[in-house]
C-alpha cells in the first residue's frame, strides 16, 4: 500500500547521540515537546492504523495508532503512539547534537 502522510513537524534534540548509538524518543526530545499539538492530514483507527515514524538521523520504525482521530482533528504526538514506542531503542543513523532541529514524519500504510 502507498503510505499516506499523517503529519510532519519538527522537534529539537535535548542531548547528543553518536552515530550507531541506541536512542529513544523519550531520550531524544523533551517531555514538553512530546506534547506537540498536531493537526492530522488523514484519519486514524485505534489499534488498526499502522504508522511509520521517520525521524531525521534515526532509523524509522512502525507501530499502530493508539487512538482514533478524524482528518484535521487536534492530536498530540505522545498520544498517537504506544507507550512502549517512546522507550523503544532505535539506532542513530548519524551524529545528533543537542539543539538539532529534527523533522518527524508520520505516515500511515
Structural descriptors:
two-stranded antiparallel sheet, four-stranded antiparallel sheet, mainly beta, 109 residues, 3 helices
CA radius of gyration is 13 Å
| Largest sheet report | 4 strands, antiparallel
Shape: globular
Share of residues in strands: 35-45%
Q: How is the largest sheet built, in terms of strand order?
A: 1-8-4-5
Write up this protein.
This protein is mostly beta strands and 109 residues long. It contains 3 helices and 8 strands, in the order ββααββββαββ. The chain has helices spanning 25-28, 31-34, 77-80, and strands spanning 4-12, 22-23, 37-39, 50-55, 58-64, 74-76, 90-91, 101-108. It has a 4-stranded antiparallel β-sheet with strand order 1-8-4-5, with no helix packed on it. The longest helix has 4 residues, at 25-28. The N and C termini lie close together (6 Å). The mean pLDDT is 95.
